[in-house]
Amino acid sequence: MQSKPIALALDLLHQGQEGEARRVLSGFEPGSLEEEAESLALQGFVAARRGDLQAYRTLTLEAARRAETPLTLYHRGLALPPREGLAVLEAALRLFDVAPEDTARLHLALAVTLERLGRQEALAHAALARLQAPSPWTLLHHLRLELLFGRMALEEVEQLAVRLLPHPTRGVRLLAGHTLVLLHLLQNEREQAGEVLLALLPSCGPGSFPSFLVEGVLALQGRPEVQLLLESAAAFVRTREDYGLQCLAEGLHLFPQVAAEPFLQEAALQLQDHDELQALRAQAHLAALLGQPLAEPYRALAKALRPEARPLFLPPGLLESRPSLQVLGEGRLLSFRHLRLRGLELLVLLLARREGWPGTALAQALYGEANLPALRVEVYRLRAAGLEVRARPYRLLTPLDADFLELREVLKFGNLHRAVELYQGPLLPQSQAPGIEALRFELEEAVRSRVLRATDPGLLYALAQRLEDDLELWEATLETLPPQDARYPATLAWVRRLRAEYLA
Predict the structure, then answer these.
(1) pTM to 2 decimals?
(2) Where do the structural domains in the chain lie, given as residue ranges?
(3) What is the second-level CATH architecture of the domain 324-422?
């Protein structure tokens, strides 16, 4: 349980009263190592509010070294680069059985960290934080992530955010305003976004100005204030991430002129380890400028965004809409007329081997025998559906996206969270075609083995739900979940049921 001075300082910081919080902490005489460490972490947070992120990182490192508590690990996780911070925050959730408000604080930090990594599960953690500790902060973080990854109606987001614009706490007003700027940009309402932004800028300090810079350029593009905004940014550049955001803002302002290229290149370099969504923005505009396709892993990041949010990060036409084949857990080809299971099987085999198939080998993979007449009939049906298939060797020329191909790609780059999102179930589960069965096993084992090695409870639980009869997955999930976790009872029930079935 936190001491009264620590609790008071936390409350003052939530209210935006950094000076009062600093006075409380400076007069506090800790009675234990834990209190000393938490006081140090909060002093670092006060420094971060003033824009001194280096002091924040130094003080939070020392605080966590002296004593690991939910509060010191919360700040340590936020102060680190996101990949390192993620491990600290996940460990904190596993280590401590704490009050709902402390758990909510850790979930909120995970939401912020995962957003910087461009991962959709940030939304789930923000929703958990809002459920466990409703407050203006948890509400606004949840709303922002709904705009990036969710499905909440934009009108509802606006209604909830507008109510908090006149809030007495400056930080809440800024976060509400940032949410509304993002919302207006999503709806292509640049004038409204610009008006909200200009009303907020006088309240921005060193700690908050850089986070408004990129959206500010998008909102004020074509207005005289945009040049003032860019010139002002130099006064607030204190970290590598700040510099990356400044370069990105300059590059977006100059885009599509060739002069934007060096700024976008520098932004991509500086932001790639600190904010992958902003790095996506830099890489996407750079690719468009150079006439190149958007490379992985940024293409997968872009697809994970809410459809209305993609134009904010990608220039027009960079991700052209293409027919999409969904065969993990189901089987359907979007943007084309309905295909039978056999046609879907043939499509998967053609996509899996872009260089093409000899006729006999393709027939064996599809039918289990060299049934070339049946293969020709199925190829004819694909052509009649509007797909271009060449022979000798058989290969597909129509550009298609496919979930199983994206799964292969994200596994190559080690993005397990995106892989589990994509893996909605086995490949064409009704198919008995030999080639499909082999590919199904290959994909399932690739995802399953990597998730088991990662020992991440969220990944294990999500995959176990897709592969319900896999006792090893459920047992591994049970081992990683603390008993107080909401997922623990369901996991325990699955383990008991499957063990009983295997022993029967």
Answers:
(1) 0.70
(2) 324-422, 455-503
(3) Orthogonal Bundle (1.10)
